[in-house]
Specification:
Alpha-Beta Plaits, 2 domains, eight-stranded parallel beta barrel, four-stranded antiparallel beta sheet
Length: 419
């Protein structure tokens, strides 16, 4: 069995020669032969180049040195197979051997990991999502439409009792999901313990009265795994069922530690991911990176959205959504995609149409709900109405004619500001 990675390389030399260098450097090494080293041993652990597909050449770089000549740059996509016996199913070994060291190899002006295909042994070795799409729907009671959510932001500066007042209004409004912003963990003005104590009684009281339990994702991230588990247990004991985890900050080991013991839905926030992908000539595609976290077992995965307030183009969001929605081994290993960042009802139709006309997502709006001119409850209804219009293939402006909350939302946010 083998593990196959695809690298997009740019080099002033031969792409074929560079591909061979990557394969040897990342498996057997490029040092002089060592005592006891045999060809049989090398062939058992050596990576192998299986394809080199030339791409359109890059422009010849301009250099400040007068009179100095440089060859044109060649670009290619390179497939390299690594023997499973040489890596095993440990994700840290996979990251180290197949990805971690490639960026330090000489002779390239660009290298990006754009695909990774894993054998079934990885699916057998790792748990995958505990709840995923089906569990998120079951716990929220939402069927046939997106789960609609909002965010409590640190910028609001709310103390626990003030947060509880906002949550109470949101719960009464019919929102399905509320989360702590990824930056809201346990600040002095609103500790996690105090926040849980103020919020969970409202969630449970509403559940007792209506039979519907709003999912609240508390920020439990911590560099110390033991403290993170204490945070987890605090939420679980209070009756909570979801937690925000900052996966880059915690790392593969931290999430693995948590997943093995967790009884909460794990909502993955990918802050810090951009440094790994923003340069188109370096880093890796989300299609590759997300596989690590899915194997470990996150249940919900935040991936920005259409017309976001940050740098990421719509095409990147669509590709990320497709990656999360494509089974690695079977449908149960797909986490719930979470569309966020500057979202309001105005992006619902494009989101629906560009993601395969699916409603299997969590649609997360911050200002698009809490900053609605009619208040958070009206904000929730406006987003619900926008999705009703999208699924019914009715233009949002026409649907808004007899839906005042949506009309007010269009007036407030259609210029792209405020959400």
């Amino acid at each position: 069995m083998t593990i196959t990675l695809t690298y997009r390389i740019e080099t002033p030399g031969s792409p074929e020669a560079m591909a061979s260098k990557i394969a040897s450097d990342q498996s057997t090494g490029t040092f002089v032969p060592l005592p006891g080293e045999t060809e049989e041993l090398k062939s058992r652990v050596a990576a192998r180049v299986v394809a080199v597909r030339p791409l359109e050449n890059a422009e010849t770089p301009t250099w400040p040195e007068v009179g100095k000549t440089h060859p044109p740059l060649s670009r290619a996509d390179v497939d390299i197979e690594f023997p499973l016996d040489a890596i095993g199913t440990d994700l840290s070994a996979l990251m180290t051997i197949a990805i971690g060291g490639v960026y330090s190899i000489k002779g390239m002006t660009g290298i990006r990991v754009i695909d990774m295909k894993l054998p079934a042994a990885f699916g057998e070795a790792h748990p995958g999502p505990q709840f995923g799409i089906a569990g998120s729907r079951r716990l929220t009671g939402v069927r046939g439409r997106p789960i609609i959510g909002t965010i409590v932001k640190p910028a609001l500066g709310l103390r626990p009792h003030e947060t509880a007042e906002l949550v109470d209004e949101l719960v009464q409004s019919g929102v399905d999901f509320i989360k702590d912003d990824e930056k809201l963990m346990s600040p002095a003005y609103s500790s996690l313990e105090q926040r849980v104590a103020a919020i969970m009684p409202l969630i449970l009281d509403h559940e007792q009265k209506t039979g519907t339990k709003v999912m609240y994702a508390f920020g439990i991230s911590h560099a110390d795994p033991d403290q993170m588990m204490r945070n987890h247990d605090l939420v679980l004991k209070a009756g909570g069922n979801c937690a925000v985890v900052n996966i880059n900050s915690i790392g593969l080991g931290g999430i693995t530690f948590l997943r093995k013991r967790s009884e909460l839905v794990l909502h993955a926030h990918r802050n810090g991911w951009d440094i790994l992908t923003r340069d188109p000539g370096a880093g890796m595609d989300f299609k590759v990176w997300q596989q690590f976290w899915r194997l470990i077992g996150v249940d919900q995965f935040q991936i920005n959205g259409i017309r976001v307030k940050y740098w990421e183009p719509d095409e990147s969001f669509v590709a990320s959504f497709e990656a999360l929605s494509t089974p690695l081994f079977d449908a149960s290993d797909c986490p719930l995609p979470v569309a966020g960042s500057g979202q309001w009802g105005g992006q619902a139709a494009d989101t629906y149409n560009r993601t395969g006309r699916t409603t299997d997502l969590l649609y997360l709006c911050g200002g698009g709900i809490v900053s609605h001119p009619g208040g958070p409850a009206a904000g929730v209804r406006a987003v619900q109405q926008a999705w009703q219009a999208a699924v019914s293939n009715v233009p949002i402006e026409i649907y808004a004619a007899d839906h005042p909350e949506l009309a007010a939302s269009i007036a407030k946010f259609s210029d792209g500001k405020g959400a």
